[in-house]
Amino acid sequence: MAKEETDKELYKQFLEGDKEAFEKLVIRHKNNMIYFIARYIRNIQIAEDISQDVFVYLLVNKKQYDFQYSFKTYLYMIAKCRAINYLKKEKQVISIDDFENLKVEDEELEEEIFKKDTSKNIRKVLGQLKPDYQAVIYLTSFEGLKYKEVAQIMNKSMNQVKVLINRAKKKMKILLEKEGFSYENR
């Protein structure tokens, strides 16, 4: 069984002219990135378009990636900027409180975080959180990113991210208890 290549290895292969390596990166990250963007945009079709735009940006500006950073972090930083630019252009409010209307192809993503019997209520509670709280929970819990990576994506310091996570968890606990659920702070 062959070892799966890392994102950085694939990106290096892409820089050397291997188009298949780029396609592997797209396949690997497309669905989760669409889901991430949709949390800002609240429209899955527009999120798909922005996702494509992110990958086109990578194709056109392929030498801008700094290998000292995680590829995933770089990708999500571009995605976040594109989503915010879209919202500014459309003058929409950044809010991601409508999880029920999102169509997610990668259902395993949610199953890792939410138990089947409480996921609807947890999503409802997440939707009541401030956008920064939602983003920090998504990036750490759904994407499994480290605080340092989250800080880079959100353009915040490590201490700010730690405070955001702490406040988001406290707010979630309060809201979940209002809904009649106990919450374990992990």
Describe the fold and architecture.
The protein is mainly alpha-helical and 186 residues long. It has helices spanning 7-15, 19-41, 44-60, 71-90, 107-113, 119-127, 131-142, 147-154, 158-178. The longest helix has 23 residues, at 19-41. It is globular.
Following the backbone from N to C, one meets helices and strands in this order, namely HHHHHHHHH
Strand content: under 5%
Shape: globular
Judged by helices, strands and strand pairing, the structural class is mainly alpha
Q: Provide a count of the helices.
A: 9
State mean pLDDT (0 to 100 scale): 78
Secondary structure: elements and pairs:
Blueprint: H1 7-15, H2 19-41, H3 44-60, H4 71-90, H5 107-113, H6 119-127, H7 131-142, H8 147-154, H9 158-178
Helix pairs in contact: 1-2, 2-3, 2-4, 3-4, 4-8, 7-9, 8-9
Summarize the structure.
The protein contains nine helices and no strands. The chain is an all-alpha fold.
Write out key terms for the chains shown.
186 residues; mainly alpha; 9 helices; 68% helix
